[in-house]
Design brief:
Aldehyde Dehydrogenase, Chain A, domain 2, about 525 residues, about 40% helix, five-stranded parallel β-sheet, 14 helices, binds NADP nicotinamide-adenine-dinucleotide phosphate, seven-stranded mixed β-sheet, Aldehyde Dehydrogenase, Chain A, domain 1, 2 domains, alpha/beta
């Protein structure tokens, strides 16, 4: 078996003019196909339906990204039948061959990187740097899971056989048809990660992307086809979550559900999946990655300039629409005033506007529902604390919300406990490091957390007491790297899975033990 070393995809340096030119070329490529119509893809066939929705640019309502045919229950059922049929052959394919499809797809991603970056900017409102990181992460997932499936083949070597008595084998086999339900906030990285993990493990899938980013999802399916993936392994069925999503979750032939999205939808999927439907002969497995209310704790005696920099980056990167975004800053009283001043100063310097312009570090939020929800939380924050930066929003041309900082909050405030999922940072002052940990742990979530401290004792305390799936010491709490920081949260942040980690693929498989008597 060939050995491959794993190296993460390098992020593009946009200080280099050459690279900025490539991005602009990417934008030109995307502009040529704006407004195209996209079919469903079931068993490799393009299917048109009666219902079409349009995808619009969240930074510019006049720009239509594409028209997408929508699946109904009928098409979801057709997709299920195709996926079941194709599972009978795909499950038996050589894992090396499946890995090679992922490696080839990674190469195609690299070739089309700037086009994909630009599409993320136009359909999801991602500034250049964020879009580039999203595509790089998708490439990393393909390269990493390709290697992981090869690694997992070695499990059999770890099983003992008894000489002259029996031969024992242990192997992982795929589960069956998976429902892959993805979010819009990492529309290519998370979708690619969830889908590629499922198929490289030998499963076939029904891919239901977020309604906000269906064109990007289509591009992924197109790339996988070009990479040689047989028909029917991925069935692309864009449609409403509450209709198509619900149908594939409840379907008796669905073997597992891989979901990333909000806590509310995650809980409902978990509950529905638990119900054994008529004709169902297994218990469905659910991998759910859900929301967060991530905090950064800032201890006494740290470099406040550095702390402010890390907080602001983590709070406002991609308009705070990362599940890992810092949405709470819990600050030691001795440095509170000085640090708040720095946070305000850095927040006010953020250039916000159409992300097609390289200089705009922050773009819009994703859609009207998000815009309304976030602006409502800003109004709540005005009553619960003090708005010290931002607080303005308008949706004249796109869904724009200024990066907002709310100070002097009680840890019981709603804006300190509920996931806002937008550019809003809630701040509170604490008496001690112990109190900070207690407050950080006081929400129902447990996704990411950051601690900035120069005390080794406090850092060690955080390692033991701060209950989050991804903890970052002396740095921002966003930016996990595939294979380096396996990602996923505790409590209401999900089912404790770790995407981009060594045990992720196993969640898509089952172990089989075979013993032959000699
Ligand atoms: P969402 O509203 O929960 O939607 C996620 C997906 O679920 C979409 O494809 C959606 O389809 C679908 N869906 C909605 N209702 C459904 C139903 N009844 N049955 C089946 N599927 C259904 O979340 P989002 O707004 O896309 O994403 C933001 C959330 O994701 C945040 O809470 C964020 O923290 C979380 N997130 C977590 C992680 C993590 O790793 N833990 C990573 C990224 C994001 P429609 O679009 O058609 O409604």
């Amino acid at each position: 078996m060939a050995i491959y070393s794993y190296k993460t995809e390098e992020l593009t340096n946009f200080k280099c003019e050459e690279n900025r030119k490539k991005y602009l070329e990417g934008i030109n490529i995307v502009k040529k196909y704006l407004g195209r119509t996209y079919p469903l893809i079931i068993d490799g066939k393009e299917i048109e339906t009666k219902k079409i929705v349009k995808s619009i640019n969240p930074a510019n309502f006049n720009e239509i990204v594409g028209y997408i045919h929508q699946a109904s229950i009928d098409e979801a059922e057709k997709a299920m039948q195709a996926a079941l049929e194709r599972f009978s052959t795909w499950r038996l394919t050589d894992p090396q061959m499946r890995a090679d499809v992922l490696f080839k797809a990674a190469s195609i991603f690299r070739r089309r990187k700037f086009e994909l970056n630009a599409l993320l900017t136009i359909e999801a409102g991602k500034p250049w740097v964020e879009a580039d990181a999203d595509v790089a992460e998708a490439i990393d997932f393909l390269e990493y899971y390709g290697r992981q499936i090869l690694e997992l083949q070695k499990i059999d070597d770890k099983i003992l056989s008894r000489d002259k008595m029996e031969r024992n084998e242990y192997r992982y086999i795929p589960l069956g048809v998976g429902a892959i339900i993805t979010p819009w906030n990492f529309p290519i990285a998370i979708l690619t990660g969830m889908s590629s993990a499922a198929i490289v493990s030998g499963n076939t899938i029904l891919l239901k992307p977020s309604s906000n980013t269906q064109v990007i999802a289509y591009k992924f399916v197109e790339i996988m086809k070009e990479a040689g993936l047989p028909d029917g392994v991925i069935n692309y069925i864009p449609g409403k979550g509450s209709e198509v999503g619900d149908y594939i979750v409840n379907h008796p032939k669905t073997r597992f559900i891989s979901f990333t999205g909000s806590k509310e939808v995650g809980i409902s999927i978990y509950e529905k999946a638990a119900k054994v439907q008529k004709g169902q002969i297994w218990l469905k497995r659910v991998i759910a990655e859900m929301g967060g209310k991530d905090a950064m704790i800032i201890d006494d005696g740290v470099d406040v300039d550095f702390a402010a920099e890390e907080i602001v980056k983590a709070a406002f990167g991609f308009s705070g629409q990362k599940c890992s975004a810092c949405s709470r800053a819990i600050i030691h009283k001795n440095i509170y005033d000085e640090l708040m001043e720095k946070i305000i100063e850095k927040t006010e310097k953020i250039d916000m506007g159409d992300p097609l312009e390289y200089n705009n570090q922050m773009g819009p939020v994703i859609d009207k529902a998000a815009f309304d929800k976030i602006s409502e939380y800003i109004n709540i924050g005005k009553k619960e604390g003090k708005i010290v930066a931002g607080g303005q929003f308008d949706d004249i041309r796109g869904y724009f919300i200024r990066p907002t900082v709310i100070a002097d909050l009680s840890f019981k405030a709603r804006v300190m406990n509920e996931e806002i999922f937008g550019p809003v940072l809630s701040c509170c002052k604490v008496e001690s490091f112990d109190e900070a940990i207690k407050i950080a742990n006081s929400t129902e979530y447990g996704l990411t957390g950051g601690v900035i401290s120069s005390s080794r004792i406090n850092l060690e305390k955080a390692k033991k007491e701060f209950h989050v799936g991804n903890m970052y010491l002396n740095r921002k709490c966003t930016g996990a790297i595939v294979g380096y920081q396996p990602f996923g949260g505790f409590n209401m942040s999900g089912t404790d899975s770790k995407a981009g980690g060594p045990d992720y693929l196993v969640l898509h498989m089952q172990g089989q033990s075979i013993s032959e008597n000699f």
